[in-house]
Design a protein that fits this description.
By secondary structure, this protein is α+β, with helices and mostly antiparallel strands. The protein contains 3 helices and 4 strands. Strand 3 and strand 4 form a beta hairpin. The chain is elongated, with a radius of gyration of 21 Å.
Length: 153
C-alpha cells in the first residue's frame, strides 16, 4: 500500500512530465518539418517589410493579407520555465515557441497571397499577443501585409 501511495505522490508526476517531454518534442519536430516543407513550396511568394512598391515592379492590384496562429507551450516546458524564473536566464523553450508561431503566421499570410494571385507582399508586420485564461503559456502571432498582383514590365 505504501508503494502505491509513493507512486501516486512521486512516480506519477515524474511519469507525466516524461511523457509530456517526449510527446512535446515529437510534436514540435513534426511541426518544424511541416514548416520547412511549406516554406519551400511558398518560396516564390516574396514577403518584404518595405513600405513602398519596389522599383521595377508593375503592380496591377493590391489586397491586405494576413495569417495568424495560436501556439501553446507544453506542460514540460512550463514546468522547466518555472525553475528558470528562480535562477534567471533565457527561456529557450519559449523562444522556439515564438519562432514557430512567427514562421507559421508568415506561411499562412503567404498562402493567402498566393491564393489571390499575388507573388509579392510588402509592408509585412507582425503582431504578438499573449492569450489569457490558459493554464499553459499561449501566444497568438499575426503577420499581415499588402499583397500585390504584378504584371511584367
Amino acid at each position: 500500500m505504501e508503494y502505491l501511495s509513493a507512486f501516486f505522490n512521486l512516480g506519477l508526476p515524474i511519469l507525466l512530465l516524461a511523457v509530456g517531454y517526449f510527446v512535446g518534442r515529437a510534436l514540435e519536430a513534426r511541426h518544424y518539418a511541416s514548416i520547412r516543407q511549406r516554406e519551400r513550396e511558398l518560396q516564390p511568394v516574396l514577403a518584404l517589410n518595405t513600405r513602398y512598391v519596389p522599383e521595377g515592379v508593375n503592380a496591377i492590384g493590391s489586397l491586405v493579407v494576413s495569417g495568424s496562429v495560436v501556439v501553446s507551450s507544453d506542460y514540460f516546458k512550463t514546468f522547466v520555465a518555472g525553475f528558470r524564473t528562480l535562477f534567471g536566464g533565457r527561456f529557450r523553450g519559449y523562444e522556439t515557441l515564438l519562432e514557430r508561431a512567427r514562421r507559421e503566421a508568415m506561411l499562412r499570410m503567404k498562402l493567402q497571397a498566393r491564393r489571390n494571385g499575388s507573388s509579392l507582399v510588402i509592408g509585412v508586420r507582425f503582431h504578438t499577443t499573449q492569450v489569457a485564461g490558459s493554464q499553459t503559456p499561449s501566444v497568438e502571432v499575426m503577420a499581415y501585409g499588402t499583397a500585390l498582383r504584378t504584371k511584367p514590365l
